[in-house]
Amino acid sequence: MLSEFSLIERFFERPTSALKSPEPALRGDRPKATLGIGDDCALLAPRRGQQLAISTDMLVEGRHFFPDVPPYALGHKALAVNLSDLAAMGAEPRAFTLALGLPRADEAWLESFSQGLFDIAQRFDCELIGGDTTSAPAVNICITVFGDVPPARALRRDAARPGDDIWVSGVLGNARAGLGIKLGEWSAASPDDERRLVRALELPEPRVALGMALRGVAHAALDLSDGLAGDLLHILERSKMQASVNIDDVPRSPEVAALQQELQQQYMLAGGDDYELCFTAPVGERSKIERIGQRLDVLLTRIGTIEGPAPYGHAPDHAPAIGWRDASGKAVSLTLQGFDHFHAD
Amino acid sequence: MLSEFSLIERFFERPTSALKSPEPALRGDRPKATLGIGDDCALLAPRRGQQLAISTDMLVEGRHFFPDVPPYALGHKALAVNLSDLAAMGAEPRAFTLALGLPRADEAWLESFSQGLFDIAQRFDCELIGGDTTSAPAVNICITVFGDVPPARALRRDAARPGDDIWVSGVLGNARAGLGIKLGEWSAASPDDERRLVRALELPEPRVALGMALRGVAHAALDLSDGLAGDLLHILERSKMQASVNIDDVPRSPEVAALQQELQQQYMLAGGDDYELCFTAPVGERSKIERIGQRLDVLLTRIGTIEGPAPYGHAPDHAPAIGWRDASGKAVSLTLQGFDHFHAD
Fold first, then answer.
1. Which residues of B touch A59 (CB under 8 A)?
2. Considering only CB atoms, which chain B residues are within 8 Å of A4?
3. Does B107 touch chain A (CB under 8 A)?
């Protein structure tokens, strides 16, 4: 059994989190944390002209991931879902803290978990600056992430405007289809297809570059963690708007498109865990957005329109509605099971 | 059962976390978060000339608190231990995020927990700016706290210098004595005494004003969460120093002083949960420090000396030692059980 301190030192102190020169803000290069793991607090020097975007997520074994998930993938995903929140604000990743509850200190598990965590952290230049480890009845990972975004350029949920196009990145439903495979709900045509879908579930790629490219272009944005149907409502509620969405335009992979319609809609619209961005933007920005998609090699698809102010005003009980339509313009009535931590188990 | 979103809105969205004017940094008053709960990220505008001190802690039911702890006290303590980390850096509290794992959504429990949390948050002007709630097998509270401290004035663990006095605030051992009462290890002379000790355990008061007053006065500092014997070692290891401590000078309450010697030492030196500050300062600062104690009405006691560089160099296996002495100067050999999340259960 490792002690808490040797555990932190062995798996989570990396050269990049060591003490930097005392005053990096005075140097010309990109300021990092001035003081990392090993003191009561980490110290983060603000960058000139930037606000700090901050998000926190708690992932619990048996709730957000299976006990037998590969620890490398878990380390990846724990940071990826937080980076996705930064992406949804148009923020540039900078640093994160990690609090880790563990039933036991399993060295092989920790080695692989920390490798997955540091691999994605390094790719996105996001430094581990502090943490806490404790024993807990189930694995519990709480990450708080910090990013930079210039004031007034953050992509917020309350900024959708009438007439805006509604866009999504990537394809929707793959992660939920991968979960369906793990749960035995269905089988894909080939082991390769199944691996691809499970990979979408376990190793989501946060759309950080896209979020930053959409600064000053998109109006409202968020990341799709719980499913389009529920997540888009958050934009509509905060912006006090209504929307129409063309279901047939919602982008999906060939594997999901091959499913029977009801399962397809469930996976695409209420599946969650896609970590794609959903954003609204003026019609006049269409060609600019298409060029961003080409430059970043990210599929960007228009799926609907912000129709105008919600009729019910601000009362939270009267959620602004999404009108779902098919390609012919006909209204479609959906029965979706959403994801809610205290409802749907 | 409450849904995740109505739970967040009902118990954790307060007027102080609502949307502020868009550019508070341009106003003359103290900048708060520009965007709080309800978006993908919170936005925090840096204050000119300040670095951000960041700390994260995870508290787990059955590990850090009893399942039947009063929820008001739990809400208080969850933030208090984080504010104590800010105090140990000399940082001024500013904001925090809360990730909360719950076995069930118990409204009465949440009402009381959030009241305890917001009462101390308001007293220390520390705003809840973001969060996450999820179901979990046991209550799990992960708070990340943010404070401001001017560059180069932060109180670090690695800054102890030869000849420094070693100081502690308050009295040590009360929290552990309170835990002893809850565990049935001993009984105090009166119910009032017992209440006072249990209160020290459940409602610790972070030494925020003291930490800020020690900027530019103290060299090294930390907060006593695991017990003086273990925590002082962190300063010594980081500073590569040795120390001598006079056990008879370690301040204790009359209740702890009445215990038999071995229990007394165990509670004072290895009990933990005191959240007092331990700091080192030059001899020349004694009178200034005494005046700070008088002004803030905080007991400040000199308990020892930083003797000089550790003989073993930087090897982590050779921890720099504390020489424990009694009032006559005689060396005392201690057998203490320290607190380690993966050792002592």
1. 134
2. 340-343
3. no
Judge whether A105 is closer than 8 Å to chain B, CB to CB.
yes
Predicted confidence band at A344 (pLDDT cuts at 50, 70, 90)?
very low
- Among A5, A9, A40, the strongest candidate for a mutation testing the B interface, having the largest count of B CBs within 10 A, is A40
Would an 8 Å CB–CB cutoff place A98 in contact with chain B?
yes
* Extended beta strands in chain A, E state: 33-35, 42-44, 51-60, 92-102, 127-135, 140-149, 165-169, 221-223, 241-246, 277-281, 300-309, 322-325
Residues B52 and B145: their CA atoms lie apart, in Å, by 10
H helices present in chain B, as ranges? 4-7, 71-89, 107-123, 174-182, 191-202, 208-213, 228-239, 254-257, 261-270, 286-296
Q: Contact B56/A23, CB-based, under 8 Å?
A: no
d(CA A192, CA A181): 12
CB-closest option in B54, B135, B138 to A44: B54
Q: What is the pLDDT of residue A318?
A: 52
The 3-state DSSP class for residue A72 equals helix
Partner-chain contact A7 B342, CB within 8 Å: yes
Buried b (16+ CB within 10 A) or exposed e, A291-329: ebbeeeebebbbbbbbbeebeeeeeeeeebebebbeeee
Each residue's pLDDT tens digit, A25-64: 323 334 456 666 778 899 998 888 899 999 999 999 999 9
Rg (CA), chain B: 21
| Contact (Cβ atoms closer than 8 angstroms) between residue A276 and residue A170 | yes
Query: Which residues share a beta bridge with A323?
Result: A244
Q: Given CB atoms, is A272 within the 8 Å cutoff of chain B?
A: no
pLDDT score of A34: 60
Instruction: Answer whether residue B327 shows pLDDT above 70.
Output: yes
A54 closest CB neighbour out of B3, B38, B130: B130
Of A23, A40, A142, which has the smallest distance from its Cβ to B99's Cβ? A142
pTM of the complete model = 0.89
d(CA B75, CA B159): 33
In sequence order, what DSSP letters do the residues of A87-120 get, joined into one string? HHHTPEEEEEEEEEEESS--HHHHHHHHHHHHHH
Q: DSSP code of A15?
A: G
